[in-house]
Design brief:
β2 and β3 form a beta hairpin. The chain has one helix and eleven strands; from the N terminus they run αβββββββββββ.
Amino acid sequence: MQARITKLRLALAAFVFVLGGIGIATLLSPLVGSALATAGQIVNVSDPSAPYTVRVDSTGALKTAGLDAPTLPRLPFNSSKFVYAGGSSIVLGPTTATVALTDLKIANNFGNTGARRLSFWQYSAGSPNTSCNATHLRYLGDYDVAARESIHANFQTPLVLKPLVGLEAWCLLVFGAAPAGDTTNYAINVSVGGYVPSGTFVPTSSSTRPPTLGAVPRKS
């Protein structure tokens, strides 16, 4: 006995096979996509307005070619200096680096009978600017500290200091002031902390050491 396969049956069989193929492809597509994702794909990301191209380095970090990206680790630093009423002190610099300040501490000496006002300025001039001159300057703010008290400010957004113009070398200066008639003038301690996003900056060894606890206050 011979079985007959009609044209209709052949057409139905072909249709079922096509549907099966679609079903199999649909089921396999997540696996295929996953395999491609695991293997990785080469993608170039570029800036149409500038010749910058993003790439992944050997450590897996995303880098941008064409930019002066920081090459130094963001190691924290702390610089501590003294300032007297009627005088000034260079807290940072001179430097051409970009410095991000994250915290500030001011301690009014217990020997002072009155409050102290400290004004913060950034001076910038042609490098190396060893005298911390101010061809350009930037006012940063004032802090009032009551007698025998201290303040501690944490900057949620770092205060970024860098050359005000071109490659000038800049300094952070602090000026002290006392109320009229205040006859005491013991040193006020100013301490700033932060990190270096770009460039080379290392505070001097003397500036990184905080005042010794229990030290006798100095008077000008």
